[in-house]
User: What shape does this take?
Amino acid sequence: MRNKIIAGNWKMYTTVEEGVALVKALDAGLAGNDLANKTVIVIPPALHIVSVLAEAKKAGKVHLGAQNCHYEKEGAFTGEISPRMLKDVGVEYVVLGHSERRQYFKEDNGLLAVKTGAVLAENLIPIYCCGETLEQRESGKYKEVVQQQIEEGLFGLSAENISKVIVAYEPVWAIGTGKTASPEQAQEMHHFIRSLFATKYGQDIAANLHILYGGSVKPNNAKELFSQPDIDGGLVGGAALKAEDFLGIINA
Ligand code: 13P
Assistant: This one.
């Protein structure tokens, strides 16, 4: 059985102090909570990671992720942060290919394939995002779009490496809009994504793959989404910025 993974992507929100306070509040809310079948991840801005992780280590309930990274270990890449640096400070997960990175920073599947390999080479776990825009959904081509994102971004990986990857399906039209994919729409896509892995890598790898849903996940819709057979948790944006809301989603 796949455990549930609940990841909070803070995007470019919070100060360091607010971030530390948020983790403190999460830990207080999770006290006495058995997380044996759940992994909780917070994904703050890179600048916050060291302080937030120091706080998170006290209770040991919350894992740390980064929102992006460069593909080289080090070098003359002003403004960038490498997988090695993230590993060094205790990060475990790296989000790659978030739709905001694809849209505003022109990251494409080819670049993301390189980044994914670099992250895995540091024994970090990539959370690889995919998802269609509203236009692509309305044109009926949404499955092709997601298939291409998965094939070009991930399917160059060995079976050993692919089994470490987490996929996040985040329909762009559902991100920050309050318009969640219905459980049926999300399940259809998660099932489709799993079938792509089954065809390429076999049933065992597909059955063990975690596929998270992202896009306006809230405490009041998380339970229905997470109870779909192919939805293994969520990548949460806005609702991850308030401890009460994020706890409500974790406990859904
Ligand atoms: P919202 O939950 O705010 O829609 O954001 C989703 C997201 O982009 C998480 O990565």
